[in-house]
């Protein structure tokens, strides 16, 4: 698009933008004549999909702003009225985290629903994402909206949608909602009530405090050991997010009296002053947690991301050093724990993982007689598959996870829940302590029986419209000419999930290697990244120390990763991101 076309689009946007702040922002871009910035802002509409919306805050259709959220909510409201007959009775839950503009976006959301005649059950305080998911079920709402960008940097925000079953939306609802959004009038013509008007008409309803108590009661029942510990020293960080107060209440009620928080990161702060990227997986994000853990001599470190739907864990190794567990290790520990140590169940237990997570949970489920599914990346698929099998086969969902630090224990929420997962992991650690074992000692028991699996991941970021084209070229190249070997390992099978043979079509490629290894490539659904996942299985020798086997496996894994990245770069991937 040429400069004239961009400026015409910008002026049309300005005429319909109801927010003076983004109007001023865009006028400044026009005054500076920054055509590259304009081109990115108007490259297209921020796409509504199964993750809802997520993007950089700012003016323009390719940004998160009040205009986009008002039109999105109007489209969602009209879709709900067309498909859910009792939506005007059941209403919609609206929650928000502590990010910049979250309060304004949540208020706009509630006020547009109210203008459409749909009651909005609004959290009067900041709410973790798992609490919004819980409220959708607990209040029997027709849907839920959570304003959050999860673990993204401070310049981002997002809009996450739950269906009435408590799970994130999946097809056909995403396409249906998007089609209704496309028909919505310009943002400044979207009707919305003021909060006062909505209150007066009974269309703005504060979520009661009793709902939080109900959530805490429910997650406390997920514990297996259930006896807490006075001696287990635990450090927790909220990562400047909204999970802190909830974790304190949960740990106190569970009997973990030796509980310490990372004070510098405990209160919600959407600027994330101590971390550039508020994701526990990112380099440096856990530095303050480590410092606190060293000061109090912690045995266990637990970390949520800012909306508290993810969990990271650090434990002491045999040398006394704190070691970050991988998402797969946490998933295997929690899954094995609740499956094997949990109560006797009336129905066949069901576990679910994603296609980029470790295959080990499936091996465990198969050997122990549990139902198991492998689904596409994204917790929406885990939750909806669990619901589907419960209805069709009367299975009992006990655990699901994705390697990106997302875990669900039981059915309290139909989404990943970093608060309940942290509580159950503390329960696991207390159980290990009662046996005279460490968490890593328990992991070794699992590995000696089921094998030692090691995994790794590499991400490459390509921002903007040009970056999306780079990612497309990489995936197209791997698809049209898949490698026959990666380093010293031959490729035994290529699984192209775009064909949609057993799962919905998805732009993912998996290269299955000799000896049980796997390399998977997929573009991120929420960030301008391409992600590569790697896994190898190692068999421990009789009496061999687990650390010796791990060192051998991780050396092999490094070679595999280096070989694959070299292969992709030989095919023209730019030297960008890491």
Automatic annotation (TrEMBL):
<comment type="similarity">
    <text>Belongs to the phosphohexose mutase family.</text>
</comment>
<feature type="domain" description="Alpha-D-phosphohexomutase alpha/beta/alpha">
    <location>
        <begin position="214"/>
        <end position="318"/>
    </location>
</feature>
<keyword id="KW-0413">Isomerase</keyword>
<feature type="domain" description="Alpha-D-phosphohexomutase alpha/beta/alpha">
    <location>
        <begin position="47"/>
        <end position="185"/>
    </location>
</feature>
<dbReference type="InterPro" id="IPR005841">
    <property type="entry name" value="Alpha-D-phosphohexomutase_SF"/>
</dbReference>
<dbReference type="InterPro" id="IPR005845">
    <property type="entry name" value="A-D-PHexomutase_a/b/a-II"/>
</dbReference>
<keyword id="KW-0597">Phosphoprotein</keyword>
<feature type="domain" description="Alpha-D-phosphohexomutase C-terminal">
    <location>
        <begin position="509"/>
        <end position="537"/>
    </location>
</feature>
<dbReference type="InterPro" id="IPR005844">
    <property type="entry name" value="A-D-PHexomutase_a/b/a-I"/>
</dbReference>
<keyword id="KW-0460">Magnesium</keyword>
<dbReference type="Pfam" id="PF02880">
    <property type="entry name" value="PGM_PMM_III"/>
</dbReference>
<keyword id="KW-0479">Metal-binding</keyword>
<dbReference type="InterPro" id="IPR016055">
    <property type="entry name" value="A-D-PHexomutase_a/b/a-I/II/III"/>
</dbReference>
<dbReference type="InterPro" id="IPR005843">
    <property type="entry name" value="A-D-PHexomutase_C"/>
</dbReference>
<dbReference type="Pfam" id="PF02878">
    <property type="entry name" value="PGM_PMM_I"/>
</dbReference>
<dbReference type="Pfam" id="PF02879">
    <property type="entry name" value="PGM_PMM_II"/>
</dbReference>
<dbReference type="InterPro" id="IPR005846">
    <property type="entry name" value="A-D-PHexomutase_a/b/a-III"/>
</dbReference>
<feature type="domain" description="Alpha-D-phosphohexomutase alpha/beta/alpha">
    <location>
        <begin position="327"/>
        <end position="444"/>
    </location>
</feature>
<dbReference type="InterPro" id="IPR036900">
    <property type="entry name" value="A-D-PHexomutase_C_sf"/>
</dbReference>
<dbReference type="Pfam" id="PF00408">
    <property type="entry name" value="PGM_PMM_IV"/>
</dbReference>
<protein>
    <submittedName>
        <fullName>Phospho-sugar mutase</fullName>
    </submittedName>
</protein>
<dbReference type="InterPro" id="IPR016066">
    <property type="entry name" value="A-D-PHexomutase_CS"/>
</dbReference>
